[in-house]
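To: structure desk
From: M.T.
Subject: fold request, one chain
Message: Could you run this one when you get a chance? Sequence is below, nothing fancy, just the single chain.
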Amino acid sequence: MIAPKRESVLKLLLIGTIMKREYINEFAWSKIFEFLQRRKEIYVGSQENCKKFAEGIYWMSRTGAQWRELPDCYGNWNSVYKRFNSWSKKKIWTDLLNFCKENPDLEYIMIDATIVRAHACAAGYGKQALEGLGRSRGGFSTKVHAKVDALGNPLQFIVTPGQTSEVTQAQFLLEDVFNSHVIADKAYGSSAIRNQIRTQNNNDVIPSKLNSLEPVEYDKYLYKERHIIECFFSKIKYFRRIFSRFDKSARNYLAFLCFVGVCIWLR
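Reply: Done. Structure tokens follow.
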């Protein structure tokens, strides 16, 4: 058992170490702060305090810790949570991702989904289905549907219950995609999705299902690029707040997804 005095010293050393480290570089912060200053419906405050708040959100995203465990150097945990939640309700985080999507490479567009296990503490807020929580083969889970550009940068996220089929969200992911190559796996190989892709002047690079009566030809070499979105999912799951869902509301979980997406765009 650690003596109380020694425990206090260790805690001070830990906090001091955290305070010395900055997760958000100056270039990324200049873009983020530029956007925040334009939003009149939120209180931004001084640049120094606002950056401390953003660093706290990064720390929460990276560690997946409980809000109460947020180090004091980022401010009072309850105040940081209330501010994050308030901005989430006003869709600040979603709009920030849209603001940071500068010059995406739209030659190829990739869509896919990944299962995220939900912790028991994510339950208990409204109806589970409306909060993107459900039961899949993996248990209590959420499914993250994503669209990325040719470089693996995120363009859009949709959060649904874990048992939701990928096909049901494809229409929404593709509604603003034109004049591109759409790369996806065979789960998206329905006639309706192919018709939507072609109607919007896109080229579908999607293999047919094994039981298809009329297999569709596709560019097998171009299809190899689909690994980019798989690498993207691997990348965002280094953030433990994404790897496992702890947030009760789908809105706040989506807010963390968008924040991580911003970090990837500005890295």
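Reply (cont.): The beta strands are 108-118, 134-136, 139-148, 154-161, 181-183, 203-205, 244-245. Let me know if you need anything else for the meeting.
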